[in-house]
Amino acid sequence: AHTIVTSKALNKANTSQEIFFEMELPKTAFITNFSMEIDGQVYVGKMKEKEKAKKEYEKAVSSGQTAGLVKASGRKMEKFSVSVNIAAKSSVTFILTYEELLQRKLGQYEILNRVTPKQRVQDFQIVADIYEPQGFAFVEATATFLTNELLYLVEKTAHISFSPTREQQRKCPGCKGTLIDGDFIIMYDVKREESHGDVQIVNGYFVHFFAPPDLPRVPKNVVFLIDRSGSMSGRKIQQTRDALEAILKDLHEEDHFAFILFDSSIVTWKDSLTKATEENVSKAIAYVRELRDRGATNINDAVLRAVRMLVEDRENDKLPERSVDMIILLTDGMPNNGESNLQTIQENVHSAVGGKMTMFCLGFGNDVDYSFLDVLCRQNKGLARRIFEGSDATLQLQGFYDEVSSPLLLDVDLRYPDNAVDHLTKNHYSQLFNGSEIVVSGQLINGDPDNFLVEVFAKGVRNRHVDFSLTKNCCLTVTLRHSVKFMVIRHKKVWKRRREHQDYLGFYTLDSHHLSASVHGLLGQFYHGVEFEVTDLRPGELQENLDATMYVKGQTLNVTRHWQKDFSSHMKDGENIPCWFVNNDGTGLIDGRASDYVVSELFNTAF
């Protein structure tokens, strides 16, 4: 996601004033540009690594210079803030550009924009254009501040817009404040028609998105390892009970599960894992409802007990052969009983697990050593998540479980030809979960996409080996002033009746609404729409085509109905759409003659 935030402020006072610009952006995003325009002069910022930036920021501020800094702000966001002194009657335009890799979770991508103007704005706009070669499965947009009166203003297509007037932004009749204060969220997913995923090639680099559809889930064997030490008292233990009850109800009958409670002592619900039958789940729910806090925290022995339980049940053939073993640890504090050296605990667990199972950790509250849990999980093919204390902690616990509760593939290995790719990112994953996605990128050697072979090896309910030969479209993206994007895509047309192909270029404008009304050119003259009327439909020379009369730009033209491939939403196969074709090189439709738009040499011609 490529996000551009533009804010313009005018100093109406008769004296100079300090004007502030603040913007919250996702913690996973990175700033690629910040600039200010003051009285026609553009000042472009320099991006620095955080620690270095903090030192330079303090130095700049102390000497009276303009500088901005990014700081943490809440659970998911960071705040970028900057101030500048503006002369009387002058204006300043702030332009912030940031980017982030969207991660697919629970079957969708999410773009979150924090919107806090703190006052009603004369020209308020949120505009999003989403371009996905595979096409869309769905697109949704919502906001935490949307009222029924504003809901109809949100357009929900690949082009999303929200533009309330200054009056519509009013918090209440007669109020000066604005109701625009919260998160504007876009959610979507793409069509997934092929099991091998989608590969996009741009400027000599490739990205492979792998999330095959319609796979059966792999049964799981999960040991829930629950901290019941004294620090879990009160709302924490209640929210844990509520979350576990909901999680138990979500188990499938082919799953197996166990509970281990720990404080200074370790208590198991049963000595081995139990099949998730309706009867066993009901008994487990009754057990969980009696969960109470007590004692200190012995993480080392508790985790090792969970590992032994899974290993013994696996050795005694109590678990399905093709299933995944996992441990889910929930704790809110530091180990203070038994082994307390964090590195020793990590080494003990890593040695005991031996790569045979996956570990997930949930760190509850602010007192937990999250970095310790993060390393513990990464060493054992899993991941950690911080659970923030609050009224929604139960939902946070359930949400994390939902992400990892349905494994589809195990030991996923994505292989690419050694002689064709370089600088490959991580291409081996322990699991692929339902609703998630694996993303691998790299550089093509010599930039050659032809015969780009990808092999995917993985284990599922059935052994699964996917391989395919893929010849992809090449794409060049050009961005002007960090806002208007043009894409030139090389398409390969394969003729079914002949063993040959013909390359051709498709030229796409993604952000034409950012261009001024005075833009021109062969395509530019149509960016802001042209009024026309088609009448007198009649049979054409070919039976399947129609001829008609078109009135456009004061001209009367004869046009013919044909079908044309549109690759703007599906780069690989395109979409057939009906078009009116104008004869005689577009005479009467375009301004001037077709020859006016032909140049002898693209890079040696002045425009």
UniProtKB/TrEMBL annotation:
Function field: May act as a carrier of hyaluronan in serum or as a binding protein between hyaluronan and other matrix protein, including those on cell surfaces in tissues to regulate the localization, synthesis and degradation of hyaluronan which are essential to cells undergoing biological processes.
Residue span(s) of domain VWFA: 221-404
Lineage summary: Eukaryota, Metazoa, Chordata, Craniata, Vertebrata
Record key words, sorted: Glycoprotein, Protease inhibitor, Proteoglycan, Secreted, Serine protease inhibitor, Signal
GO biological process: one example: hyaluronan metabolic process
Protein name per the record: Inter-alpha-trypsin inhibitor heavy chain H3
GO CC annotation: extracellular region
Nucleotide-binding listed as a keyword: no
Similarity field: Belongs to the ITIH family.
SUPFAM superfamilies xrefs: vWA-like (SSF53300)
Domain called VIT: residue spans: 1-100
Annotated PANTHER family: INTER-ALPHA-TRYPSIN INHIBITOR HEAVY CHAIN FAMILY MEMBER, INTER-ALPHA-TRYPSIN INHIBITOR HEAVY CHAIN H3
GO molecular function: serine-type endopeptidase inhibitor activity
Record localization: Secreted
UniProt source species: Dicentrarchus labrax (European seabass)
